[in-house]
Design a protein that fits this description.
- By secondary structure, the protein is of the alpha+beta class.
- It folds into three domains: about 70 residues, Rossmann fold, CATH 3.40.50; about 60 residues, Dna Ligase, domain 1, CATH 3.30.1490.20; about 190 residues, D-amino Acid Aminotransferase, Chain A, domain 1 (2-Layer Sandwich), CATH 3.30.470.
- It contains ten helices and 16 strands.
- The strands form three sheets. Strands 8, 9, 10, 11, 12, 13, 14, 15 and 16 form a nine-stranded antiparallel beta sheet that branches. The chain has a four-stranded antiparallel beta sheet with strand order 4-7-5-6.
- It is globular, with a radius of gyration of 20 Å.
- About 40% of the residues are buried.
Length: about 350
Amino acid sequence: MKLWVLGNGQLGMLMRHAGMPLGLEVVPVGIDDIGPQQLGADDLVTAEREHWPANATTNSLANHPNFANLQTIQDLADRQLQKSKLDELGLASSPWQPLTDSTDIDALHKALGERVLLKQRRGGYDGKGQLWLKQGEPLPSLDGWREHAIAEQGIGFSEELSLIGARNAQGEKVFYPLVRNLHQNGILLASQSPLPERDHLQTQAEEMLGKLMDAVDYHGVMTMECFRVGEKLLINEIATRVHNSGHWTMTGANISQFELHLRAVAGLPLTRPVVLSPTVMINLLGVERNDQWLTVPGSHLTWYNKEVRPGRKLGHVNLVSDTPKHLRDTTAQLLTLMPENYQAVLEWFVDH
């Protein structure tokens, strides 16, 4: 069986590796125009990204009848359509409204509060494509924002959690445990799972993500990023793909998010993920490779072979251990080999 991936970044690369033990030929294809690809009638297509330019290469994949979730990917990639779908399903998210040419900013603050976050309708991940409007501060230029963005109420949240689930064509759903995430400058720095102290929120999260996947007849892995406000979850973003906060599953669970996605898309049996060990995933952002990371007990390095640039996701390290205390100790050891800003991970770390 041949499965094409629209996009050839690290997510596509990791899907290709996950397909090998299953006997799946996974072929990531970049978004540059290198001419139409020759797909077979029975081939399958998935995506590692929500946005791509229209050209001969991408069109040859996007127009294939076996492209899983194409319309859902395109719809939910638009934040205005995504928020509208969540409202339609009664799924809690931050209060919002479109930012139009006629939107009055004073009225916007009256409706949404003193802190309002503008988000571009398309793109703008990892802290990009966002603009804060704070009452009492000078109003920034809104050129290029009106009619192209939504406005959300600034949420005072306790922590950021994510849930990764998968659904197949028969409607069967499985989920990983909740993940706790640490962001710096809008970019994911670290993730930790499982979270025994958040087990009581697992059912709430699964019902929310499951309702959305059922409503759009989704096949594959979907990710729900949430704010925890007290004991309530508010959906922040939906990703119709495997996700950075799920990289811990490569070593911390019996099945990775990448294999689970391929199984769901290809019609192979799903299995409920089983946690093998407490895990912390640390993103490697703009740092030169250091083989000393591999000397830390329980460390697993995944290096993406990209050119090093400031802030760029170049790889990740998963740390696994049999006890939370030992995991904290090894995390501290790894951080001695990392830039100073990574020390925030230890302050954020939770001992279960």
